[in-house]
Amino acid sequence: KGSDSPTIINAFQLIGMSSFLDLSGFFEQ
Amino acid sequence: MGCLHSTAAREYPGHENPVKLASETAFSVSEVEALYELFKSISCSVVDDGLINKEEFQLALFKNRKKENLFANRIFDLFDVKRKGVIDFGDFVRSLNVFHPNASLEEKTDFTFRLYDMDCTGYIERQEVKQMLIALLCESEMKLADDTIEVILDQTFEDADVDGDGKIGKTEWSDFVIKNPSLLKIMTLPYLRDITTTFPSFVFNSEVDEIAT
Predict the structure, then answer these.
(1) Is B182 in contact with A13 (Cβ distance < 8 A)?
(2) B94 falls in which pLDDT band (50, 70, 90)?
(3) Which of B56, B110, B138, B200 is deepest in the core (most CB within 10 A)?
């Protein structure tokens, strides 16, 4: 298993931080 | 895959059979039945029609039906597999299945590619990435100078857009994800592995006898 490329943070890592991409809310009914 | 030894699975009129859905996903039959309880509660929250519309989807996720967001809209579009403007039970289970820890990396990679290919062109384009980045910055109230955003985009495309055509194709995305596995982190919800014990609130007594393998 590789680790992430040692570049500066990429745009997709930032985008993945969006709370709107977290589906946990479904299970907190 | 869902494993079933049963003679009596529930039937849900108008919806796909739980045994069939379990056979196509990582969920067991009783887990599909538990997901049906969840689906029912979401799908009747605004309009009791047995389908999840965008308002109900957002209400379930964010407890706020007015919370419009670029990512939330895109996730809804991907769950709306049949492109009907609503999510039926089969769409719901199959889409959630991609987030299961046992779903394949290929499925997760494909889902993220479609998530970020917002205009459905078959490529993730720089303008789309910029739009998502700005949405994220607004959401988190982070401020970055325009130059910094361009540097991040330059670096990202330098790494991911191997053929240098200014857009990221599906193969380029797969290669990029292999080098940056944390990009798939959002695609796994660990508790989907055992939803019936983690979320007892929407579990009922299944009529199905199951033997886990």
Answers:
(1) yes
(2) very high
(3) B56
* Residue A3 Cα, gap to closest chain B Cα (Å): 6
Residue B74: half-sphere exposure toward Cβ, Cα within 13 Å? 21
Q: Please give the structure tokens belonging to residue B61.
A: 């996720």
* pLDDT classification of B212: cutoffs 50, 70, 90: very low
**How much is the CA Rg of chain B, to the nearest whole Å?**
19
- Three-class SS of residue A5? coil
Structure ipTM: 0.81
DSSP labels for chain B?
------S-----TTS--HHHHHHHSSS-HHHHHHHHHHHHHHHTSSS-SSSEEHHHHHHHHHS-TT---HHHHHHHHHH-TT-SSEE-HHHHHHHHHHTSTTS-HHHHHHHHHHHH-TT-SSSEEHHHHHHHHHHHHHHHT----HHHHHHHHHHHHHHH-TT-SSEE-HHHHHHHHHH-GGGGGGG--GGGGGHHHH-GGG----S------
Q: Would an 8 Å CB–CB cutoff place B41 in contact with chain A?
A: yes
What single letter denotes the amino acid at residue B124?
I
Alpha carbons within 13 A on the beta-carbon side of B113: 21
